[in-house]
Amino acid sequence: MAVNPAATVITGIGELTTNTAEFGVMRDAAIVVEGDRVSWIGPAESAPEADHRVDVGGRAVLPGWVDSHTHLVFAGDRTAEFDARMSGIPYSAGGIRTTVEATRNAADETLAANLRRLRAEALRQGTTYLETKTGYGLTVADEKRCATLASDVADEVTFLGAHVVPPDFSADTYLDLVCGPMLDAVADHVRWIDVFCETGAFDAAQSARVLEAGKSRGLGLRVHGNQLALGPGVRLAVDHGAASVDHCTHLTDSDIEALAASTTVATLLPACDLSTRQPLAPARRLLDAGARIALATNANPGSSYTTSMSFCVTTAVLQMGLTIAEAIHAATAGAALSLAHDLSAPGAVGVLRPTATADLHILDAPAAIHLAYRPGVPLTWSVWHRGAQVFGPPVG
Ligand code: NIG
């Protein structure tokens, strides 16, 4: 067999999760990586020869996590608010204004350094693809600089000017700004528009106005909805054909039916539910009804200060009734679907198949179920991003 000098063959894979019907979960598998792509997957005994070989010693290999919901452009933290919450003070959208003030007062370098720190923290825990949002600037200039800084670090950026109404505005006057000059200022730097449709933020009519403005500028649609109580967010997202409705903590049967009959992905944020002392989102009911789900961290300083996708997967299995395969799918392929990706396209993320991006998360465990079996143990052994190992022991 000819030796491919540009390829690395990864062997000794105890269990390989591919998220594809054709390869499924394989034991004693091998993967060949060429450049930034996977070029071959199959049983180890028929792996092609390659110049470079890496033996991962019987460990489990998964696609890198896809974190499809984060708010990483911020300054300051909200330790005191969190501490008070743990003593019984309920979470409300109003706390967002604390971070808005700190973010407006921070220099670009401070925001950029914080973004890089959190992106690096996520990467070394296996997150190889990440979305992040604006939403702590809420002036034209601050939303624009947040969008610009985010686009230097994140794979995809969402405009969340409609996060809350800042002081000194009525909701409608503020939305004139969001849907006009603010949208003009950020549109070239973002792929998505989002709105926080919740009591204390924006109602259904106001949220629809934001989505329609974004759509007319060619942006994809996302909605924060049904986080703190039942509400119109899910219906709004489905009716507008949004790619994702995020939180989905409080859902009626008819919300679940609407999601199941749509292509809108329900993005569940278990770390946020725990950190805000809400019930966990009804993942099992959603899957049983036929809805599509994603899991994401919602990393932000107020409601969910974690970049750990592994923690979200662990929680989904231990507390939300998912199997490990369902939870991994939601945190990888499901999250990519929530970002409207085609999982069979060349360069796909969230799946492992020939032509997919070679983003690998290798666990220091023989099987992925250890993420739930050994909760809290840092199991990330090695991370490959776009065909190169970026975290882990020296290879080859
Ligand atoms: O997704 N829900 C709205 N936005 C964020 C919270 C941000 C904050 O509290 O700072 C979220 O939870």
Automatic annotation (TrEMBL):
Listed GO biological process terms: L-histidine catabolic process to glutamate and formamide; L-histidine catabolic process to glutamate and formate
Top EC class of this enzyme: hydrolase
Catalytic activity reported: 4-imidazolone-5-propanoate + H2O = N-formimidoyl-L-glutamate
Keyword Zinc part of the UniProt annotation: yes
Cofactor(s) needed for function: Zn(2+); Fe(3+)
Binding sites annotated in the UniProt record for Fe(3+): H69, H71, H224, N298
Domain Amidohydrolase-related span(s) in chain numbering: 245-365
UniProt keyword list: Cytoplasm, Histidine metabolism, Hydrolase, Iron, Metal-binding, Zinc
Subcellular location: Cytoplasm
Residues given in the record as Zn(2+) binding sites: H69, H71, H224, N298
Family membership: Belongs to the metallo-dependent hydrolases superfamily. HutI family.
Protein name per its UniProtKB record: Imidazolonepropionase
Native organism taxonomy: Bacteria, Bacillati, Actinomycetota, Actinomycetes, Mycobacteriales
